[in-house]
Design goal:
single chain; mainly alpha; Alpha-Beta Plaits; two-stranded antiparallel ribbon; 18 helices
């Protein structure tokens, strides 16, 4: 009796410690994502904790991004203890537990939900092999980070849709308690996959050391895993093939090529919140449904500063590759084009704003003796599409000079 009592006390003590640690992690995540702490790269730490994002991004981009190392470290920790990150750190998991508790209080019951998470992971990994991870945007840490868009740049449709993504997950957890974390969450399923692979390696090592008559029946079925990966690769190949026919939108500096960008981008919103000139917006459907809520550039009010690479420093997935400050001027975002039907010079009025505001001296004026007019011309060797000319153009409602994708 005394032994049982001591075990119960120890168990309750561990639960209290775990709750305290998870609460501290939730508060820390909120502080980091709200950009309270100094340091440009700090907001990128929370989405970068996901080993699902780290491994998938490495497969898709064929390289290591600065922040992917953080996810790989978490992945190594998960190999030692199953779902260690979910049980002790995940801020989204704390919110889901709260939603599940409220659901139970409202009379909702845990139901046997189909195991969707493992298929999401396998399809995404298969797609990543062809450079287009299909469901990387479902990562819960990315959705949790998107919750903070309205608090940084104010309300807007893009910010509302971004926040609605995580709120939808919370509603799911309220209606079906424990179903998201246990059956749907790709981050949790990826941790399970890592643990299964780790256990498989241990079993194989024991079989080599001593004769083991039969491997455990709990090991994964290779055919199912292979089927999921192949299906994801086929799906990703079809998406990439169809995506080539669509004109690429203006992307932030360091963006990987289209249509891979739409797959690698987690829609976490770190680049949107980090941009000091607020020229990075969320795509609201202009680039197609596959690119919904991905970052695009809008130069109506400001431009991409020649000395700023903040967005590339906070991207957790490598969708935006790191760009050194010294190479910013040679990174091509787009190319400025002039519409003389709108330009003030075409109406025999004086204007030199685009030339005076261009930080790269890419605009020059050419006089035409035939038409007796002055026409702005863009030097493509110097123009990187920063948008300074478009932001400064005084014509309204349409700009006479705009940056277009190339």
């Amino acid at each position: 009796m005394k032994t049982d009592y001591l075990r119960l006390n120890r168990s309750q003590g561990r639960r209290r410690i775990r709750r305290l640690v998870r609460a501290v992690c939730l508060v820390a995540a909120v502080v980091v994502l709200w950009s309270v702490l100094p340091g440009v790269f700090i907001p990128g730490l929370v989405p970068a904790l996901s080993p699902f994002v780290a491994v998938t991004a490495i497969l898709a981009t064929r390289g290591f991004h600065v922040l992917t190392w953080l996810g790989l470290i978490v992945g190594l920790a998960v190999l030692v203890r199953r779902r260690l990150f979910c049980r002790w750190v995940c801020p989204a998991g704390v919110c889901m537990d709260g939603a599940g508790w409220l659901g139970h209080r409202l009379g909702r019951r845990t139901i046997r939900f189909p195991q969707i998470g493992s298929w999401i992971v396998l399809l995404t990994l298969g797609g990543a092999c062809l450079g287009y991870p299909l469901f990387l945007w479902l990562d819960p840490l990315a959705r949790f980070a998107g919750l903070f868009d309205p608090g940084v740049h104010g309300p807007g449709l893009g910010a509302a849709l971004s926040a609605a993504g995580f709120l939808a997950i919370l509603v799911f957890g309220l209606l079906w308690p424990s179903a998201w974390c246990g059956r749907v969450c790709p981050l949790g399923a990826f941790q399970d996959l890592l643990s299964i692979l780790s256990e498989s390696c241990r079993v194989l090592r024991r079989k080599r050391q001593r004769a083991v008559p039969q491997a455990s029946a709990e090991l994964p079925v290779p055919r199912r895993m292979l089927l999921g990966v192949v299906a994801g690769a086929v799906w990703a190949g079809a998406v990439r093939l169809l995506g080539r026919k669509r004109l690429s939108p203006l992307r932030p500096p360091g963006a990987v090529a289209e249509p891979a960008f739409s797959g690698v981008c987690t829609r976490c919103g770190n680049c949107v919140r980090a941009c000091p000139s607020s020229v990075i917006k969320r795509d609201l459907g202009e680039g197609g449904w596959a690119a919904l809520l991905t970052p695009v550039l809008n130069f109506r009010k400001d431009y991409c500063r020649e000395d700023c690479v903040r967005c590339t420093e906070v991207c957790p997935s490598g969708a935006l590759k790191r760009v050194p400050h010294v190479k910013k001027r040679i990174v091509r975002l787009g190319l400025a084009r002039v519409d003389m039907d709108v330009c003030l010079l075409g109406d025999d009025r004086e204007c030199s704003v685009c030339k005076s505001r261009c930080p790269y001296d890419a605009v020059r004026y050419v006089f035409s003796e035939a038409d007796y007019t002055v026409t702005p011309q863009i030097d493509p060797k110097h123009c990187n599409g920063c948008g300074a000319c478009e932001a400064a153009c005084p014509t309204s409602p349409h700009k006479a000079i705009v940056v277009v994708p190339v």
